[in-house]
Amino acid sequence: MTMRTPRVLIIDDDSTHRKLMELISDHLGIIPKIVSDCSQAFDVLSQESFDVILLDWRMPIIDGEECTKSLREFSHTKSTPIIAVTALAMSGDREACLAAGVDDYLSKPFTIDDLKTMIQKWSRPRVETAKTDETDETAAAAAAALTDVAADAADISETADTPQTFQPIGTFETVEKVGRVGTVGTAGTAGTAGVVGTLGSPETTDAAETAETACPDCTS
Description:
The chain is an alpha/beta fold. It is 49% helix and 14% strand.
């Protein structure tokens, strides 16, 4: 029996925020589908289902409140958890969001772990159960694979003078670091360095710029 990764529909009109959500999706432990407005969301929802919807509250044309009401009228999303996300929160915003039909509310700036906790809170566990006669065989194969990985890691450790990490910016190690020192919600510039810079740490921005210089294709 294995737990399936939550599928999250993210609706946000800000291109920088959309790229940021893509970068941190591995750390959040989600499979994201990211769209820029409510109309695009319904195009996707007509073909796919999701465990959680993350909705930017202040969007042009169709704002979060109107989008939420439409989602609650749509048969596929009547009971799908909706988390409203907003910046520059004003008094009464939370109440307005909840009254419109969202399940929870997150105000910027927030940490990556805040967002992860919120998504985990509302994700419905999706279980995949393997056939009984395949369970032992699958476990044995997994154990063998782990043994091979451990052996490879030992070989690398013995031959390397200095431990190296070959990961493009935005993968787990970088995001883990960002999650400890930064917050989400400050406007950033284009490019990976700018997106990571939105997390609020000069240290992580420098790391991103270094990664872009060393491997420009890794971050495109």
